[in-house]
Amino acid sequence: MMAVTIISIAFVFVMAIGLYFKSIPILEEHSLWGLITDSSWQPFKNHFGFLPFIMGTIWVTLLAIMIALPLSLMTAIFLTEYAKKRVKKFVFPALDILASLPSVIFGVWGTIVIVPLISDNIAPIFSGEFSTGYTVLTAGIVLSLMLVPILVSLFVELFSTVPDDLRAAAYSLGATRWQTAKNVVIKKSLSGIFASVVLAISKALGETIAVLMVCGCLPEVPKTLLDACYPLPALIANNYGEMLSLPLYESALMFAALLLFIVVIVFNLVSRIILKRIETK
Amino acid sequence: MWFKNLFLRKFLASDCNEAFVPDAKFKHPDKAAEIKVEDFNLWFGDAHILKNINVAIPPNKITCIIGPSGCGKTTLLKSFNRLVDLSENVKMTGSIRLGDEDIVNCSASELVELRRKIGLVPQRPTPLPMSIMANVAYGCKIHGLRRIRENRRIVRHYLKVVGLWNEVKDRLRSPAVKLSIGQQQRLCLARSLAVEPEFILADEATSALDPVSSRTVEDLFVKLKEQYSIIMVTHTLRQAMRIADYVIFIYLGEIIEVGDAKEVFHNPKHELTKKYLEGAFS
Amino acid sequence: MKKSIVMEKISKGFMIASIVVVFIMVASIIYTIFKRGFGCITWEMVSSVPKGGFYIGGEGGFLNATVGSVYIVLASTVIGLIISIPIVFYLNVFKSQKSRLAYWVRLAFDILYGIPSIVYGAFAFSLMIYMGVRTSLLGGIIVITLLIIPILMRSMDEVAKNFPHDLLEASFSLGATRLETIGIVLRQIAPGIATATLLSVGRAIGDAAGVMFTAGFSDSIPTSLSQPAATLPLSIFFQLSAPQAEVQNRAYAAALVLTIIVLVISLLGRFITNRFSKHKLN
Fold it and tell me: Which of B60, B205, B54, B53 is nearest to B126 (CA)?
């Protein structure tokens, strides 16, 4: 049992080392700084610029968080501070369904519903040009919906650790429910909210198939929300067949995986340590 | 922020001797109001917790609600400012009046104002997640008093009233949770006084404190009854005997006996009261 | 009206709006998938494997993908349980629940849980190339096992953590060995194991990025571990990217099948949790 346990821990390191070894060839040929700041991606001409993918990832992730955070914060406050049992009985199963749906289903939904919505209705408002509908905005919306159940469940957990006595104290001074929620409940859970958002970001960074289906897959740095983008996971997934044709190509993709791995691990570590500290308090 | 502290120091240095006058918003009525409970019933789900409560609570006195545990003392206390609303499935009938206003049947905005008029000192101290200063000023802030200078005056005054000023004046900006339990409880009292309530509800406010702080809080209550009316729930009969002017004895959700403290303690009319006072059950 | 009351109304409006938005989104997803799916699903699609010219609109169905998914999920769940149950025991029975080791192991699993499946896939893929293995059912099973171990482990640990330690002490004090005690713990956390299993099955069946590299894709039902295997999510993904409407329709049908499987699993999980929590104290 001890052995199994230790192997599991060691696995994290094995993965890091494995991915690192695989990306050595490309790191020998190009500098790390050059790789992440170059914006030209032409593998067959030996141009490996990851900037479009990094920027694509950042755009999509930030947009998704910006949509999902207010939505889930408000939902969670409503559920813990306002809602009667009857309402909770409807909302929680709905969130459960949302959480259990596979990402490919979100992708299908995105291509059926959101893509036409954006190319037909939203894009014409903001730009005269034709839009395919496969944009940063599409990916952000689809991704945000996948983050909502994660965030809501983390927030509800956090808010329920705020003692009722504190709420009673604010109420008895004449605070309204919203004032209590804002000044007491949210304020008390601020570090937890931060940690949850970091956790959600790390989930969003790694989300592959749903984003791949709606992002447009154009290796260029997006300039507006209505441009196509190409996040890192999509890059890895989309080129898995081709990557054997060029040794450096494979190494480049593994480098992408390594990047993703490191960022996700750092984010995860930060948020988990904060959340654990709150839990034990 | 550093400049805030600068202001604070300057303010502390200037000794202001003028008498403290609360904001016009918080002025008490000329004639102190009483709380009048009429035919009040309360259910949690199917459980009938309070049955046919009829009682008038006199102003500017310390009223003690006594009775064995689990008989509805705290629930009655929390009905006075409708904190019972926090639990699910509460049903209330009858009326509780503060002056002319009905606490049981009022709109959300009236309730907010009513809750200001009826302060609460909880069983365990509940410092809000902010600084000492912000804790005391919080009530004023949510009721629209936002002038920083004015709020400082308020904070100083009420911290002095509860005798906490000298202990905390150098660390007004540190988090309130860092105070000792006894200090926290006095801070909570200062916080509720800062919005100038007419009534103060105290739910076994001394039970979590050490004997010395407990005594301090008790003495404070006696001092405060000149300006405020105090209703307290207590488990310790001796405490009730020490400070109560008026006593309500509850048993299983019903009021058994009400009256002047001397009368109830020395000359109980009801058999149950007599037994309770003798310590036959608790 | 007072400002605070106006704010209260506005913010409540926002909250209700966000709940409604979430609800509409969920309804929209379910409605879209069901409407499209039922519009084009036929028995042939569910019950047959792809025939010639499948990806340009030829005959056949996606049975290969369904069977492939089921193979992978079943095998990896069994292996995952065999690996993760000992770890949970080790953390909760053999070691004290709050030891330093336990803290770090939990942290490690939290982190493994957070690693995106595409990274697992890429890592496993490079490992397979290194060892000279081609994409195969076995590769898919290994990756999915790695993916679900953290899920299994975390949710079982959650139940085992709440497990009363007194019971352990009682068992030990009766002279039971650690191995015998495991029997007792096992009975206590059995429902936890069931929900954890369902949770991970739901996750495993929907994962596409991990199996993309490792299980590959094929048009026939795999007959041995070394053959590549198709999976439902990938089959949806590939068919949806085809330009022909017939092929896309099959993708919708496959999405419907996948959604129904996942929903049934999640309902089952909810049912078990509800049944189970009825017998718990809190």
Answer: B205
Which value, to the nearest 10 degrees, does the dihedral of the CA atoms of residues B173, B178, B181, B183 take? Answer: -30
Residue of B nearest to A166 (CA): B126
Enumerate long-range contacts of B28-33, CB under 8 Å, 24 or more apart: B28/B196, B28/B198, B28/B227, B29/B99, B29/B198, B32/B59, B32/B60, B32/B198, B32/B229, B33/B59, B33/B98, B33/B99, B33/B198
Q: Are residues C21 and C93 in the same domain?
A: no
CB contact under 8 A, B109 and C5: yes
- By mean pLDDT, which of A221-230, B53-62, C97-106 is the weakest? C97-106
Q: What is the token pair recorded at C250? A: 């099959």
- Residue B25 at interface with chain C, using a CB cutoff of 8 Å: no
B185: nearest CA partner in chain A: A169
Looking at the complex, report in whole angstroms how far the Cα of residue B72 sits from the nearest Cα belonging to chain A. Answer: 18
Residue linked to tokens 């926290």: B184
Structure tokens at B25: 């918003």
Does the CB of B280 have a partner CB in chain A at under 8 Å?
no
With a cut of 60, say whether residue C280 has pLDDT above it: no
C61 and C26 part of one domain: no
> How many domains are there within chain C?
2
Which domains does chain B carry? 33-278 (3.40.50.300)
Q: Record the tokens describing residue A103, joined without a space.
A: 């990402």
Q: Round to whole Å and give the CA distance between C87 and B261.
A: 64
Name subunits touching A (3+ CB pairs < 8 A): B, C
Report the distance separating Cα C72 and Cα C205, nearest Å.
8
**Using CB atoms, which residue from B120, B130, B195 is nearest to A168?**
B120
Rounded distance, CA B119 to CA B198, Å? 8
Q: Identify the structural domains of chain A with CATH numbers, from first to last.
A: 2-280 (1.10.3720.10)
Q: Do C146 and A11 touch (CB under 8 A)?
A: yes
Set of chain A residues whose Cβ sits within 8 Å of the Cβ of C236: 104, 108
On average, the pLDDT of chain C sits at 83
Report pLDDT digits (tens) over C203-254. 899 888 888 888 878 888 888 888 888 889 988 988 888 888 888 888 899 9
Give B172's contacts (C-beta < 8 A, 6+ positions apart).
B8, B131, B132, B133, B155
pTM for the model? 0.88
Kindly tell me the sign of the dihedral angle through the C-alpha atoms of C18, C20, C24, C27: positive
How many whole angstroms separate alpha carbon A100 and alpha carbon C259?
9
Query: d(Cα A226, Cα B275) in Å, to the nearest integer?
Result: 80
**C172 & C35 share domain:** no
DSSP state at residue A229: B
Name chain B contacts of A85, Cβ cutoff 8 Å. 88
Q: Do C69 and C14 reside in the same domain of the chain?
A: no
Q: Please say whether the beta carbons of C228 and C213 come within 8 A.
A: no
Flag whether pLDDT at A203 surpasses 80: yes
Chain A residues with beta carbon closer than 8 angstroms to that of B113: 174
End-to-end CA distance of chain A: 30
Lookup: tokens for B5: 């502290």
Instruction: Judge if C76 and C163 occupy the same domain.
Output: yes
Cβ-based burial of C77 (10 A; exposed 0-12, middle 13-18, buried ≥19): buried
**C12 and C85 housed in the same domain:** no
Span A186-207, mean pLDDT? 91
With vertex at residue A24, the alpha carbon angle to CA A244 and CA A50, rounded to the nearest 5 degrees, is 75
Of A84-93, A266-275, B15-24, B118-127, least confident by mean pLDDT is: B15-24
C8 plus C113 within the same structural domain: no
In this structure, the answer to whether residues C258 and C170 fall within a common structural domain is: yes
The CATH code of the domain that includes C98 is 1.10.3720.10
Range of the domain at C185: 47-278
